[in-house]
């Protein structure tokens, strides 16, 4: 965790912020080029989250292992929690896994990440907390270009998400900010429902297009742009609680 104990009500999360693979898995049989792609991680989110953590004085918990080893934003029993294919690319090291191999990945990678979030929330008990899950999306998927710069994913039950969507659309052309686009928050999502729902916490699942996070300069600019808007929405929604 970065910035543990920071005072902000925002708790930043990066479910897919890393692309490490345990050495024993031999890169899952993939090439270095494959592991550079969006299939392995949310490109740019580690850097964006680190900068937002500093600008907002907020904790940031990031998963350093690749989503291809185990996807922490999927329920452990979900078929795509350990995908055998991703955006058309076969994942050889995920084929025909034994129950023991699956259980080992969950115990070593999935559970420690979720435990870190739960422990941070326990330490914050009694304080206002809004979970902000940071994700990034590829500019083109399955041959289709994606025009959105940002996307707000929600289930129509989040005051913070609704306010952030309105703020982003006020500051950008509405066509550039997706409302449950390019993805919709649904039953496939795991981290927000797992931690926010039983505690009655508000949340935001924010998607940023990866070409807007392509290098250090771009990530710094996006963080500088997002931070005051996140803070303004946090302040505005605190008055309505």
At a glance:
The chain has helices spanning 32-36, 45-56, 99-123, 159-171, 191-196, 216-238; strands at residues 10-14, 60-62, 85-86, 89-90, 130-137, 140-141, 144-145, 150-153, 177-179, 202-209. By secondary structure, it is an alpha/beta fold. A 6-stranded mixed sheet has the order 2-1-5-10-8-9, sandwiched between helices. A two-stranded antiparallel sheet has the order 3-4. A two-stranded antiparallel sheet has the order 6-7.
Share of residues in helices: 25-40%
User: What's the rounded overall pLDDT mean?
Assistant: 96
Question: Per DSSP, what share of the residues sits in E-state strands of 2 or more residues?
Answer: 15-25%
CATH homology group of the domain at 10-20 and 31-63 and 116-238? Zn-dependent exopeptidases
Helix run count: 6
Distance from N terminus to C terminus (CA atoms, Å) equals 28 Å
Can you name the CATH architecture of the domain at 10-20 and 31-63 and 116-238? 3-Layer(aba) Sandwich
Structural class: alpha/beta
In the CATH hierarchy, the third-tier topology of the domain at 10-20 and 31-63 and 116-238 is known as: Aminopeptidase
User: Mind telling me the C-alpha Rg?
Assistant: 17 Å
Query: What's the shape?
Result: globular
CATH classification, class level of the domain at 10-20 and 31-63 and 116-238: Alpha Beta
Largest sheet: 6 strands, mixed
Order of helices and strands: EHHEEEHEEEEHEHEH
Uncertain stretches of 5 or more adjacent residues:
none
Spatial sequence of strands, sheet with the most strands: 2-1-5-10-8-9
